[in-house]
Fold each of these.
Amino acid sequence: MTNRALSHLGLAMRAGKVVTGDEIVLKVIRSSEAKMVILAGDASDNTKKKFRDKCGTYKIPLVIGFDRERLGTSVGKPQRVVLAVTDQGFAEMISKQVGIMSEVEYIE
């Protein structure tokens, strides 16, 4: 895996600072524990809208990019559509990498 953002995501997962799954991610967004949400670029339009709206309401950075296969592989799990980073330091490390990438279609 050459992508540093995905490597940092894997490191955050091993540190226990990443949660995955629709409902759990929505829960950490509502409780403001999420510092960044990463959504697969191949997620459905409905899912993208739901997380864009929720992250916008709670002012949490949202990154839409990669695909579900690469997101899952980066955290050592099968395909993942949505992930939330719950540590500010990891979120900043990942967002610096994401800012210079061409694969990411949307950063808010």
Amino acid sequence: MEQIFPTAEKMAAALRAGEVTSAELTDEAIARIERDDKAINAVCVPDFDRARAAARRADQARLHGEDRPLLGIPVTVKESYNVVGMPTTWGLPQHRDHVPAEDAVQVSRLKAAGAVVLGKTNVPLGLQDIQSFNEIYGITNNPWDHARTPGGSSGGSAAALASGFCALSIGSDLAGSLRTPAHFCGIHAHKPTLGLAATRGMVAPPAPPLPVELDLAVVGPMARSARDLTLLLDVMAGPDPLTFGVAHDLTLPPARHERLGDFRVLVVDEHPLIPTGSAVRAGVNRVADALVDGGAHVERHSPLLPDLTEAATLYTQLLFSGSVARFPVEAYEQLRSRAAGLSADDRSLDAARLRGMVLSHRDWIEVNNRRELHRHGWRQLFAEFDAVVCPITPTPAFPHDHNPDPRERRIDIDGVEHPYFDQLVWAGVATMPGLPATAVPTGRSPEGLPVGVQLIGPMFEDRTPLRLAELLEDEIGGFQPPK
């Protein structure tokens, strides 16, 4: 079988054919981590002894005729998921010794599907950055350029996949935390429809793992191929057995089309609030050209597209409204004073962030009402189109920037500096209304860095952008290992 960075699909086929054992795959992965991860620092909490034991059990199960979806496949798990016997810290130093008593629901599903968990991957402090570094585990580097970030907050998982340390990984996404690392590291990721995959046990310590329905945030799969995303999503999808799972069974509708030429696609590469860098624009154009060459119906503009400026403002307010819930009263009052001093005409994203932090319940309900209007607008758009192609962030991976005050950081877009957090607006296009979005690699920048785009699909029709991702992978290629 192919020995260099095989997909999970190929691993599973080789395991079924008896060409390799899970123990061999696991030993190969561990050897690669031990050899190469010193420079990357992706796998922050290894669990090799238990992984080898799980691999032996998987091989025995296969000898006895079992065949589960991920039986014997080596995987990693984002550090923020609870795993029995391993710390869950979210990079918070005060919780470095927190060890949960039960697995997160998604970790349980991985294990039930037969996956071999190699360990946990690094995250930023509190999962609140577009990079992946913290005081406990240090800095994760981009496999393509160690001076650059792999993204965040699922940056450790993306770096691990790009480095060949695992076949699959699970992450989470609130502000592009699945899609941005995929874009920066040249892999695939899928942000599911809001609520599609249960999140219990993906919780900041020391909070209990309750079946809470989160706003904006989702959990989802990461892989080196689009087909592997579908394989892992089928394991992850479904309601929490403690709540909706008591009464609901999940049946995702099939992809709208199977042939590239049948897809109707809207391509968007400009945002009113931030420019698109030339490397990312070129990546969008490569996808657009492949769609046209494949016979798809492609449009560059549509009056049905919900207003991107208002969408970014609503997303920013919703995102930051939850970030100050546990702030000390004094700090919160300072924010309220600053927000009260804003001009009524100030419609900048900085102002939206500040207003979001101090939204009253009444104001939050109004913002949420506006969100529902946007969701209705997306439903109308997806009556005419099957998917929307757009950037994930304005640039490829940027150099490490660990300024402790993110407000002072800047993102360089073709030589012009912009506020650091403004780059989140593209992630918010899908996150604010809760739509599924698949990140796919499209090639390299002139500097040799990976560039990706996102394929946004209709709500709960996750198989449509995933199928489009598979077809595009066949047309323009997919993951390539770092050089």
Amino acid sequence: MAVTRLKRKDRKNKTTSRLEVKTLKLATNIELGSRSQQPKKDQLAKNNLLLDQLSAALRA
């Protein structure tokens, strides 16, 4: 099967989307500081606490 060349528009879209993904990954890093600390009432914090309790119960 032959390899087809992308048209200029498709090459641009491919590059742009790759750069957008890279930018989003860099932008979502949690930085140290008071504003980025996870709240105690957050559902993710509750889930982590429950998982810690269950894993401790299984170890005991």
